[in-house]
Amino acid sequence: MAQKLKILKFPDPKLRIVAKKVTKFDKSLQNLASDMLYTMYEENGIGLAATQVDEHIRLIVMDLSDERDKPMFFVNPVYKILDNHSMASFEEGCLSIPGFNEEITRPDKINLTWQDLEGNSHNEEPEGLLTICIQHEIDHLEGKLMVDYISPIKRDRIRKKLSK
Ligand code: K1U
Ligand code: ZN
């Protein structure tokens, strides 16, 4: 039975830890992925990185479907920005920064490599929201947050609001 995990909130310093590569594709990895997916659904999110639940390994869960029945798991994801990319803006949210949405500009064409929960390798050029969401989630694994893309003044205002 999956469990709901606590999501770290900005400005918790643990959100700045750089996640380690996954080397063991075992039952405990599957259990964590299943708890993260349950937590993401409970919080109405479309993605969640292990860093956000205080687990510092390179694991991401996602579901971009309207029916919330197409879970995706990304282990050790890496992306390269394609030469023919443009920059595109999207109003992003973050479960670690509740009540805050911001237009973030990111490259719109990437090549993505990852492993699944069994350790099999995959490579794809994703489209649409997946391109945006995976960059947001990989930022979490690097200890980077949406607020790092905005002005220090605005970031400080959010920090004060969420520290109360
Ligand atoms: O990683 C997270 O904090 C989850 C985050 C993922 C995300 C949303 C939007 C753009 C990039 C990454 C969320 O799920 S926020 C909540 C949400 O469901 C949502 C917010 C804005 C647009 C679409 C969905
Ligand atoms: Zn986030």
Residue-averaged pLDDT, rounded?
A: 97
| Distinct ligands | ligand K1U, zinc ion
Residue share in β-strands: 15-25%
What Rg, in angstroms, do the CA atoms define?
Answer: 15 Å
Q: Would you tell me the structural class of the helices and strands?
A: alpha+beta
Through-space gap between termini: 34 Å
Please state how the strands of the largest beta sheet are arranged side by side: 1-2-3-6-7
Number of strands: 7
**How many separate helices?**
3
Shape: globular
Poorly predicted ranges (pLDDT <50, ≥5 residues)?
Answer: none
- Main beta sheet: 5 strands, antiparallel
Q: N-to-C SSE series?
A: HEEEEEEEHH
What helical percentage do the residues reach?
25-40%
Q: Can you tag this structure with a few keywords?
A:
globular; 7 strands; five-stranded antiparallel beta sheet; two-stranded antiparallel sheet; alpha+beta; binds ligand K1U; 3 helices; 164 residues; binds zinc ion; single chain
Can you offer a commentary on this structure?
- The chain has 164 residues and is an alpha+beta fold.
- It is built from three helices and seven strands, in the order H-E-E-E-E-E-E-E-H-H.
- It has helices at residues 27-42, 129-141, 152-163; strands at residues 47-49, 59-62, 72-81, 87-92, 102-107, 110-115, 121-124.
- The relative contact order is 0.19.
- The model has no long low-confidence stretch (mean pLDDT 97).
- Bound molecules: ligand K1U and zinc ion.
- Residues 44-49, 92-96, 132-133, 136-137, 140 line the site of ligand K1U.
- Zinc ion binds at residues 94-96, 136, 140.
